[in-house]
Protein 1
Amino acid sequence: MIGWARLVIALTCVILATLVLVPIQIIAMWTGWFSENFARSLWHGVNIKALGFRIHVVGEMTPQRPLLIASNHISWTDIEVMASLFDMTFIAKSDIDKWPVIGKLFRLQRPIYVERERRRKTGQQASEIAQRMAGDQPIVLFPEGTTGDGNMILPFKTSLFGAAALSIGSGIRETVHIQPVAVVYTRVQGVPMGRLHRPLAAWIGDSELLPHLSALLRGGGIDVELHFGQPIEFSDRTSRKEAARQVETQVRAMMQTALRDPL
């Protein structure tokens, strides 16, 4: 009964926040009278509270720009965690735009959609990323290409790291900064999850979204750590494969540290 009561209260909060904040953000987008990020970050913050997440930040985002953030990926909630704290642009799979309701709401995040299965579009997609990197807003990339189970990270793909090279080649900047970030779900109700229970927070493969969302809202009490690593500089002399390897090594090390000794 407590779980279902949490579900009702959480959904009520999310719905009310959506009805109030989304129109404010749309007005900001259309008019430019004020920053749209205020309503957007507040909306994500309400979602985080509704989910019962507690966020612990280790390190800090570098002030260097342009900035490409490369993070491991465990669930759709990774975006909620980061967007509740920072103004970011996310690179996401194009099929998210087709999801009922959620796809329309996610569009307000101004994401960059990619179609990973259509290789001939990779150059075009990387060009869009490069153009968006010309601004001051960090771009978030999930280079695993899919979600993991929270116990380990998958090998980083190098293709979309080409956005850094394109930014340099287009003359936008001489150097692009890539910062590794590890998202780690560590505790549930204050107790370390352990290897068998970490997938509670993971949304893997073709799992149904609504049952996963319902379980999170009914359960709550999850601690998530956001670790910022040491940025690396990417120039016209940098290898994409080497950059991906360095970033993956840092993300894996930060994740293992958080799993071994959670805050």
Note: The longest helix spans residues 2-31.
Protein 2
Amino acid sequence: MAEAIQLKTRGELQAMRAAGRLLADAIAAGRAAVAPGASTMDVNDAIATAIAEGGGTSNFLHYGAHGADPGFPATICASVNDEVVHGIPSATRTLVEGDLFSIDAGCILDGWHADSAVSLHVGAAPSMEEVDLVAACERAMWVGISAARPNGRLGDISAAIEQSVAWSSRADGRRYGSVAGYGGHGIGTAMHMAPYVANQGRRGKGPRLAPGTALAIEPMLTLGRPATRVLADKWTVVTKDGARAAHWEHSIGIGEDGLCVLTAPDGGAAGLRPFGVTPVSLD
């Protein structure tokens, strides 16, 4: 039997919005720390400090802890170049000009979780194909978010992401690899909840998105084939062919009157505008 989707009241979605705003501020602090010569741990520490100063805690640190296993050892996932997701920050991993760096972070505020990710180049991008990769991944996220409707279907989001990747591949003249097996998820009183949000799917399929649903939407694209493997650290996911990868993510809340992008500073207004969607305010 499928796990039930947790539905939130408007007040609970507003509490999630507060957590999302804190995370947005923390990721902005992390982005400001990204520069040639900085370590991935420098970025981790900037985000950890911002979360703590805002009254939150990390939901990544010690994630998956069980018995003697301490779980994930940091506040962010710091994935560089061919690392797709779940890279572990290190004081000895120095960023260099042209690196493609994905920051994935989350926080808990007053018992409510937020989760978000961005991809950016360290300094100037080394090629236009990498500029296009990051843009195609971000676009796929926003297209997926724009497909979320009260009482719509989960498959509408998955299909929209898949179709956006195909559109970008045609427009850019290259075939992007859309990573399968990793995707978005429900979010609320825990970071990972039902339902799983695939980045490929069919419209009109899957559970209904009842008002009160909160989801994390997160496409992952590569410049090569979509196949991945996990490194010996048991966390870091890399592309099998060594191609570079991008990852974008926002958490959204769906209310009776529409959606709000909980982890976007403006609630998603700028990102959704090109797709004709106006988010509702939960501030």
Note: The chain has one domain: 10-275.
Protein 3
Amino acid sequence: MLRLAAALALLLGQAAPTFEVASVKPNPAFDAQESVTFEPGGGIRMTGYRLINLILGAYELRAIQQRDQIIGGPAWLYTDRFDIVAKAEGTLTFDAQGRRPAEALKMLKSLLEDRFAVKVHTETRMMRAFALALARKDGRLGPRLVESATECARNDAAAATAAAQSADRWCGFRHVSGRVEGRYVTMSEVSSYFAADQAIKRPIEDRTHLNGRYDFTVEYADAPGADAGSLFTAFREQLGLKFDNVRTQVPVLVIDHAEHPTPD
């Protein structure tokens, strides 16, 4: 599919979008926190990123939730960290909610293919997984899961005011001491988030058929060594959702090639 898209773009005379300038440097801090900021005038700064997370983000591979779903690639893909400072020509554009930088993701994909010689493709493999589904036959949601009316803070500079960036204007996930909150999230995002929970550690396929965005709060025992029982019970009682054991075809990412970045 990737080769076909590139061939079509070439035939149609459409060059892949790229950053006007970009700097890629190793970050020696093994425990650096991965962070990204968008700056006025098309600037983007990414700090402490491992290449595997850059790939998952640039290619928008949310369904790749576990290490078992990644095949091939050098070991440093998961350990070496990099800082990227780049600038697009003009202002970066976001989606209608001011959250998803689709244009920047395309530019990042081009940068990875150019500077890291990244080549990847996806396949499907049969694996054990969980299916996230509605727990009640009547389809009613639990008391702590509601359709979202949240107004998220925006990233685009034109709409980023002090009020929009206030502490309470957040969207996504927060996890503190056995309590997870989600704001303006899809069930696909919920599936990806909880697949990483120490009690799950399997891919989670969204079979809820809930297509909107939701706010939720769920509390459960997440101490080291805790089994999945507490999480499963909390989801059923608090959110009206359940986890079904399944064996199904899940997507896998195949890393065909990757190299340390070329010097600036």
Note: Residues 81 and 103 are 23 Å apart (CA to CA).
Protein 4
Amino acid sequence: MKIFISADIEGIAGVSNWDETSVNGPGYEEARHLMTQEVLAACQGALDAGCKEIVIKDAHGSGRNIISSQLPECITLVRGWSGHPYSMLQEIDNTFDATIMIGYHSAAGSDSNPLAHTFTSNVAQISLNGELASEFLINALTSTLVNVPVVFVSGDKGICEEVTKFNNNIETRFVSQGRGASSICISPKQAYQNIKDGVNKALKKNVSACRVELPEFFELKIRFTDPISAYRASFYPGMIKSDKQLVTFETNDYFDLLRMLQFII
């Protein structure tokens, strides 16, 4: 079995402030350790389920957060950003059996995590086919594009609830929940155990039940936090400027949508 892990930091247990997510922040070193341990727990769960090959995309900020020396020998770690439209799933293809997402978080415009956002703080909200779009949703459809089912997601309670609505066969484990500007987290040790057990369970189930159909048409609306960004984005081919902060992109090809996001966000 070959699996792909995409790891972010804002949905990690114990992370609750932006200064913990920035490489120069006072809480960053602890946060990257917590992130590494949750990724390690996912690896251990996968190995216990019989997985032989694991590719991990460090998908937060600089893409250089995970402490690689703490990971198993069988992993391949993707660090930094190539610029490929698959972005947080760079290097995924149809040779993988399953996708796992660790440390994921609620979308911009939600109140389920004080660090809720979608790709960048410059975006107030993204919607896809009329639904609020999180990084999970965008990346889950990317995984679907190469015919790889998402089987497990951990992060805040809000994103886990979204995943269940997306496909209730996907295993989820929430490790925190937002309340105003605060984050209520379980202990890191409990988070590691829950993730390890959840990944193990997910990979021992019928992973094909986690497959979804890719929509035939995509309407993506991006509301920026400022009109300057919307004006600039409006010059991307096919983009429509709907109002001073809102742009709309329509396509039948999901890769075209991902390519657009790569250039304007």
Note: Residues 218-264 form one domain.
